[in-house]
Amino acid sequence: MFFALFSLKHCQAYYDLTPNYYDYACPQALSTIRTVIRDAIAKERRMAASLIRLHFHDFVQGCDGSVLLKDTPWFTGEQTALPNNNSIRGMEIIDAAKRAVEAVCPGVVSCADILSLAARDSSEYVDGPTWTVKLGRRDSTTASRDLAEADLPIAFENLDVLIGKFAKKGLDAKEMVVLSGAHTIGQAQCVTFRNRIYNETNIDPGFAIHRRRGCPSDNAGIGNLAPLDPVTQNTFDNKYYKNLMHKRGLLHSDQVLFNGGETDGIVAAYSRDSSAFYADFAAAMVKMGNINPLTGSSGQIRKICSAIN
Fold first, then answer.
1. Is 10 a catalytic residue?
2. Whole-angstrom Cα distance, residue 226 to residue 248?
3. Which of 33, 166, 249, 286 could form a disulfide linkage to 254, CB 3.0–4.6 angstroms apart?
4. Are 187 and 49 in contact (CB under 8 A)?
5. For residue range 240-288, what is the model confidence (pLDDT) as tens digits?
6. What is the sign, positive or negative, of the torsion defined by CA atoms of 197, 198, 200, 202?
7. Hey, is 138 helix, strand or coil?
8. Given 10, 55, 57, 252, the catalytic residue
9. Which residues are annotated binding-site positions for heme b?
């Protein structure tokens, strides 16, 4: 019942978005946002992964910019939820893009659309796929820590849980695997993979030993970072899937994608065919970006991305 209702609403919202939404209302919007995003990644290459992840973590209520909202007296926002707390980053870059676009066309471009464009521009900058972003989202006036806790995937979850969380948003197992390929760039904190490198058996021993050097078994160094893909950590490619096939997935939630389960074949296919990975990743990002957006008279165009008007 839930899935049927979700699908109907999703399809309707999908057709409300259009790539040329700002062509007349703010023709400089896309180039203005792109400049800010590219400048930020030029200064810190890791920011590409952070901005893609920020867009991922905005699908709790649908892609509506809710992840950007700070807590208010009326709701506790999503930023302190377990999957986000002290780990999501890049909000200041979205704020900078918002200020830049407000300077050329105030009150027109939503923070939710900026998030979607930032993810695409980030992927493209680090040699990943590009795609046409459908636009016209409006911003939410609420956020939910409880929903974020319930719906966002975390590093310790098993395959069936991950499949279920993505299915709840209308994304199938293959789309879950291809979107997980974003872990070909970026870094993770020691606290998210410490149990894996000390206690799990489906891990390459040499890889585990190497990662232990920067991630002690006690509570020291829990914020220490390690690359999700140690081979080409700053370039978007299909090495992530090759790593999984050699038991070198950094997170538990990475390695379960290739661990004798139903997604093994998908991982193997993407490890062999980077073109298929790129094409499917782009398609999945478009689909994810179209999850239940606010359009028409729903929501608002926030003046500041972290606060409702």
1. no
2. 13
3. 249
4. yes
5. 999 999 999 999 999 999 999 999 999 999 999 999 999 999 999 999 9
6. positive
7. strand
8. 57
9. 183
